[in-house]
Design goal:
Number of strands: 14
CATH superfamily of the largest domain: Aldolase class I
Distance between the termini: 25 Å
Radius of gyration: 21 Å
Strand content: 15-25%
Order of helices and strands: EHHHEEEEEEHEHEHEHEHHHEHEHHE
Helix content: 25-40%
Structural class: alpha/beta
Low-confidence stretches: none
Shape: globular
Mean pLDDT: 92
């Protein structure tokens, strides 16, 4: 008999499940509390549940959990990269990034990625499958267990994969993170990063979750974006901008544009003008991100020719944007010494 994985449920779905099993729905709240507040993954430990129900759960359900394979600490930034194994032998990575009073967890939503962005190591490893809700939330639960629940203050869906191509699981995991019973994270501390899937951006706006959204931009010109991000051929930038306008208006939030600085490709004066035109259309800010090497994936073709914009030029670029009254943040690379920085997550080995 196939067991039901409790971690794949939102609280609402868990309540339906326990009621169907002859229990009062508040039993679901108790299970949720054990999972998210006590970080307990064993039904036998849930002492406020009736013994008969615990035994039934042990027979018919499970709390399937990722297996922590390894973790690597950066001696330079304190960033930690976690390697997890799924139930079917695949591996994914997540990263914990300490930044002053804030500690951010960067989580994955897919095993690999189908988008093949040329600057991203994950795209070079190909795509295996979507992660389940449980596999997404486990990255938080297991790292929180490692660090202490109150240490992780922010979650960014910026790890392996495109979150909006695994939309339902992404949505349900956010519901679990932000549920009042979990006492975990507020919505304004969660960011979903996307390469640009317009219909899902609109759906996310209509979901009522009001999390932050970041668009992986990297150029305001379609011909350049097409080379960097093949998905742009299917969903051109203007379609995404219209969707983001809708999101900003519907949720009252500001959009973040992630902009990877690539030498000679998107760091010229024409790019400053393009960003100025774009940011005038909706409330937004720009994160300038140094390009991190993906040499560990042995890229070929166009990807092998990408090089980082020198830091002095990044600062010059930022100042030109600021002179146009644009909010700009230069992001420091965190964990590039352990291949844990933006765009570097990837698994080279195949499952056994």
């Amino acid at each position: 008999m196939t067991k039901t994985n409790i971690k794949n449920f939102t609280l609402e779905k868990l309540r339906d499940y326990v009621v169907k099993n002859g229990q009062h729905k508040y039993r679901a709240d108790q299970i949720f509390n054990w999972l998210y507040n006590h970080l307990s993954f064993d039904f036998s430990e849930m002492e406020n549940l009736p013994k008969s129900f615990r035994e039934k759960l042990s027979r018919e359900a499970e709390i399937q959990t990722l297996r922590l394979v390894n973790k690597i600490d950066s001696p330079i930034t304190g960033t930690t990269k976690f390697l997890f194994e799924t139930w079917d032998g695949n591996k994914i990575e997540a990263v914990v990034i300490p930044e002053g009073k804030r500690t951010t967890l960067c989580i994955s939503t897919q095993i690999g990625c189908p988008l093949n962005c040329k600057f991203c190591a994950t795209g070079l490893m190909g795509f295996t499958r979507n992660l389940t809700v449980g596999e997404i939330v486990d990255q938080y639960l297991l790292t929180a267990k490692e660090y202490g629940k109150k240490v992780i203050t922010n979650i960014v869906f910026m790890g392996m994969g495109e979150p909006l191509l695994n939309y339902e699981a992404t949505i349900d995991s956010i519901k679990n993170f932000t549920n009042e019973l979990t006492k975990t994270l507020s919505r304004n501390r969660i960011t979903v990063s996307t390469a640009g899937i317009p219909d899902k951006i609109r759906a996310l706006a209509d979901s009522g979750l009001r999390v932050k959204v970041a668009l992986s931009l990297h150029s305001t010109f379609d011909e350049v974006r097409n080379k960097l991000m093949p998905i742009n051929k299917k969903y051109p930038l203007e379609e995404n901008i219209e969707a983001l306008k809708y999101y900003a208006k519907k949720t009252g939030t500001r959009i973040t544009f992630e902009y990877l600085m690539l030498d000679g490709i998107n760091d010229r004066d024409e790019n400053v003008k393009g960003l100025a035109r774009l940011t005038s259309k909706l409330p937004s800010k720009i994160n300038l991100i140094p390009f991190n090497s993906i040499a560990h994936m042995n890229p070929g073709g166009f990807a092998s020719k990408l090089a980082p914009t020198p830091f002095p030029k990044i600062h010059e670029f930022a100042n030109k944007l600021r002179n146009k009254n644009i909010t700009v943040i230069i992001r420091n690379s965190q964990g590039d010494d352990i291949a844990a920085a933006c765009g570097q997550l990837a698994i080279k080995e195949k499952k056994h």
